[in-house]
Inverse folding.
């Protein structure tokens, strides 16, 4: 990495893009061997918020009989209101473009307030049945809070909470326990809901892009959309009426593949390739099973290791192709 930076600096100097004084200043600065701990500090802040909110949950669970329900709810409400008070006080207000806090610490304060508000509403419903038997409202209410805060404060983490809340309201469970229990596979109706929800998120991205509304949040929607659409299609490829879902997955993979180059998102690119590869293998397996190629079954088994080796090599080449086409080579 250091050699690449030196070569890039030398190239700029040779092409007279920087002066000799600037060239020497850059070399002197790099000679100090300074490095940024920005990402490390952000990770520690995020971890501290998770530990703080988890600690509150554990405190409530272990002392629910001694502290009292009213005291717990009052404490949660007071801390939540305090978080939002400082956030609203130090933010410029809603605008269609991105508006950042003067201090990035407030972004984590927004996240804390939203998580605590979810805890507050959930505890209120569990203890007092505020929404009666309409349990969906207990999910929808904090979801609305999260989506509002995501757009007002331009917070991607809070937006993820809001989208997850919408999925939960529709009956889609996103926790690892339900994923490993194959809940969507056992209930195809949920896969249809997941597919419709994923396509709805994609349509929302197209709409907000057209009206220039918070376009920097689009990657969050696209990530959820890719996962929902792909998983739903892969699940239905294993069912009886599989051909239409193979077509939908192919179109989605093609769209997200090209989109990942446009927005230069390596995560979107990798997941698109993985889902496309899985879907393609299931599709070919269903076709082979339908045509009944029993005569070439032994040949198929023999060539399988070479197929996977070739797939790994192809995946590496795709990564190199992505890096080559998304790297700025202007210098």
């Amino acid at each position: 990495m250091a050699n690449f930076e030196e070569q890039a600096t030398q190239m700029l100097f040779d092409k007279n893009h920087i002066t000799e004084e600037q060239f020497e200043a850059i070399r002197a600065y790099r000679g100090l061997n300074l490095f940024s701990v920005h990402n490390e500090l952000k990770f520690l802040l995020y971890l501290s918020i998770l530990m703080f909110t988890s600690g509150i949950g554990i405190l409530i669970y272990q002392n629910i009989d001694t502290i009292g329900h009213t005291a717990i709810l009052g404490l949660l409400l007071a801390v939540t209101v305090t978080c939002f008070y400082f956030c609203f006080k130090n933010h410029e207000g809603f605008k269609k473009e991105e508006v950042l806090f003067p201090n990035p610490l407030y972004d984590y304060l927004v996240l804390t307030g939203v998580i605590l508000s979810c805890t507050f509403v959930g505890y209120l419903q569990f203890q007092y049945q505020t929404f009666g038997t309409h349990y969906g409202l207990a999910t929808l209410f904090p979801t609305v809070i999260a989506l509002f805060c995501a757009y007002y404060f331009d917070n991607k983490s809070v937006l993820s909470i809001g989208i997850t809340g919408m999925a939960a309201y529709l009956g889609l469970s996103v926790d690892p326990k339900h994923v490993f229990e194959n809940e969507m596979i056992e209930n195809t109706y949920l896969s249809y809901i997941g597919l419709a929800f994923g396509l709805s998120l994609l349509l929302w991205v197209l709409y907000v892009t057209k009206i220039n509304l918070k376009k920097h949040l689009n990657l969050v929607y696209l990530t959820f959309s890719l996962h929902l659409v792909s998983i739903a299609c892969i699940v239905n490829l294993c069912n009886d009426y599989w051909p239409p879902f193979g077509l939908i997955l192919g179109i989605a993979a093609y769209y997200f593949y090209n989109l990942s180059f446009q927005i230069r998102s390596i995560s979107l690119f990798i997941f698109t390739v993985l889902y496309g590869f899985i879907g393609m293998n299931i599709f070919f397996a269903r076709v082979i099973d339908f045509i009944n190629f029993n005569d070439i079954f032994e040949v198929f088994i023999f060539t399988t290791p070479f197929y996977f080796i070739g797939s790994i090599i192809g995946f590496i080449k795709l990564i190199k192709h992505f890096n080559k086409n998304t790297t700025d080579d202007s210098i």
In short: Residues 197-331 form one domain. The chain is about 80% helix and 0% strand. The mean pLDDT is 83.
